[in-house]
Design brief:
Layout lengths: L1 H17 L11 H34 L17 H28 L8 E3 L2 E2 L7 E8 L2 E6 L4 E4 L1 E5 L4 E7 L4 E5 L3 E6 L5 E5 L5 E7 L11 E7 L1 H12 L10 E2 L1 H7 L9 E3 L1 E2 L3 H6 L10 H14 L23
Parallel strand pairs: 3-7, 6-12, 13-15
Antiparallel strand pairs: 1-2, 3-4, 4-5, 5-14, 7-10, 8-9, 8-11, 11-12
GO cellular component, one term: periplasmic space
Organism: Massilia psychrophila
Membrane topology: Multi-pass membrane protein
């Protein structure tokens, strides 16, 4: 009975894990698929050392136990060239292999790098235009602006399958982390800065998205749904938002004054939709000049750099705003 109970206790974690559908290891986006494969390969390489060491520890403890008088007893033994080569050579080779894999994957899976393929069997043509989504982490909700479609949503993200998506990500106050496990790895959202994530979803469905970085009282409920739809479904969704239909529908315009109200801290926010968005809103959020009379960071930096240059000093700031801080865009009609 004791033996049976012990076996059940040992097998219980394995049975529980076998029933678990981990989205990180079974994702629906090509970038996340490559990241999952990297985890598997890296783990397998490390197990090449870990498993033999554990097995040998058990084997040596059993073979050289006190009661085994047949085991070879060599108290003066202290060196074996063959054993030293195995002990140091095998880990060194694994470290080199991990280093090569890490270097390659760091460049291939760079979130700023435009996608080269939809999946392993389908490359992306050079003239493919990605869907642009501007992401703003608020306290404690997510704002998604579709500049080309002229709409915006709160806690609802929709994208067509097999279409590259370029996320431009920033935050309103404190640092957050934008994470959709089924799509790609997490990337930080920081106030006054912009990060970028290029990804693609390959399967239709509804997936969880959330903040992976503690940001205050409402952090636990800072979640949203990411919906992957076919192109027709995405177009229909855009049309419904513009028409003010559906859950969280709104026919109001998301301009600077509306954003200042939205920006106020709130918890457990539902879905909101805005059928019209001010074309310069994201740039104002990024440069922290949404409020009336506030100076934009990119203008301040450019003015400071110009003043330093006129005084004959070596500029300490950039002469013009970097591309990730300011982009010129006409208001959406």
């Amino acid at each position: 009975m004791t033996y049976l109970l012990t076996r059940v206790m040992l097998l219980s974690p394995i049975l529980l894990l076998s029933a678990c559908n981990s989205v990180v290891m079974n994702p629906s986006g090509d970038i996340a698929v490559q990241q999952a494969r990297l985890i598997v390969v890296s783990t397998a390489l490390m197990l090449l050392i870990i498993v033999p060491v554990i097995v040998l520890i058990i084997l040596f403890a059993w073979r050289y136990r006190k009661s085994n008088t047949a085991a070879t007893y060599s108290p003066d033994w202290d060196h074996s060239t063959s054993l030293e080569l195995v002990i140091w050579g095998a880990p060194l080779l694994i470290i080199i292999a991990l280093g090569v894999i890490t270097w390659i994957s760091t460049h291939v899976l760079d979130p700023y790098r435009p996608l080269q393929r939809l999946d392993a069997a389908r490359p992306i043509s050079m003239d493919t235009k990605p869907l642009i989504v501007e992401v703003v982490a608020l306290d404690w909700k997510w704002l998604f602006i579709y500049p080309e479609q002229g709409i915006a949503t709160v806690n609802e993200l929709v994208a067509p399958i097999d279409v590259p998506v370029r996320f431009k990500i920033t935050a309103s106050t404190v640092m957050n982390s934008f994470f959709i496990p089924a799509l790609a790895g997490q990337i930080y959202a920081m106030p006054g800065m912009q990060t970028t994530l290029n990804a693609v979803i390959n399967k239709p469905g509804s997936y969880d998205g959330f903040s992976a970085n503690f940001s205050g009282a409402g952090f636990s409920d800072m979640r949203f749904k990411f919906h992957g739809k076919d192109q027709a479904g995405f177009d229909a969704w855009v049309a419904s938002v513009k028409a003010g239909a559906g859950a969280g529908a709104s026919t109001s315009m998301l301009d600077r004054s509306a954003y200042l109200e939205l920006e106020k801290p709130s918890q457990r926010e539902g879905v909101r939709r805005y059928s019209v968005v001010a074309g310069d809103l994201y740039d104002a959020i990024l440069n922290r000049c949404v409020a009336p009379g506030a100076a934009c960071m990119n203008h301040t930096m450019a003015a400071d750099a110009h003043a330093n240059h006129r005084m004959g000093e070596k500029p300490t700031l950039m002469a013009s705003p970097p591309a990730h801080i300011s982009t010129s865009r006409q208001p959406t009609q």
